[in-house]
Amino acid sequence: MTPELGFVHCYEPGSARATLLLLHGTGGNEHSLVELARQMAPAANLLSPRGKVLENGAPRFFRRLAMGVFDQADLMAQAANLARFVQEAAERYGFDAGRVYALGYSNGANMAAALMLLHPEALAGGVLLRPVLPLEPSRPPSLSGKAAFLAAGRRDPWAPVERVEALAGWLERAGAQVELRWQEAGHELHPEELEAAKGWLARRLDV
């Protein structure tokens, strides 16, 4: 399949003004989060790209060098590519580029965090499921008026508590409204935290 706008992706229009940018975890694709997104925000537009980096054949949004060790140069380059894709997709499909919220899991949540820290114009906020602080930007972004819902597991080996809290701290210091929800769990997701994320989205989307 030839990528359009630089990414293999799918787009599903909705009746709301807002758009969800779906960012899958390692090994996912552009279809992985569509059903979940429709459950969480039935009326939103859905924009779902496939990560362009392959790790042993598994799509990701940026390279990692080892467990929890990210390739910072690649992360910055891929975040810039994704921010450009969102802007070009808004022009192609006619949705409001100022009303885009991420819904990301694991690697996708970390990419959403990178977008907020490096390209704050790309997102109004997002639901970040099992994220960590992916990098420390050289200049603090201005995130005033933006919001993030972080869902973390206290026993998650992929997202240690201190790195989750570091992300929340960076976002808050930059001016974002942050809700950090802890689950007594690992990297897997649980219905109650997804329900909480759905409520958070409903308060912000035209749904």
TrEMBL record:
The lineage of its organism: Bacteria, Thermotogati, Deinococcota, Deinococci, Thermales. Keywords: Hydrolase. Residues 16-202 form the Phospholipase/carboxylesterase/thioesterase domain. This is Phospholipase/Carboxylesterase. GO terms for molecular function: hydrolase activity. It comes from Meiothermus ruber (strain ATCC 35948 / DSM 1279 / VKM B-1258 / 21) (Thermus ruber). Transmembrane segments: none annotated. It comes from the Bacteria. Belongs to the AB hydrolase superfamily. AB hydrolase 2 family. InterPro entries: AB_hydrolase_fold, LYPA1-2/EST-like, PLipase/COase/thioEstase.
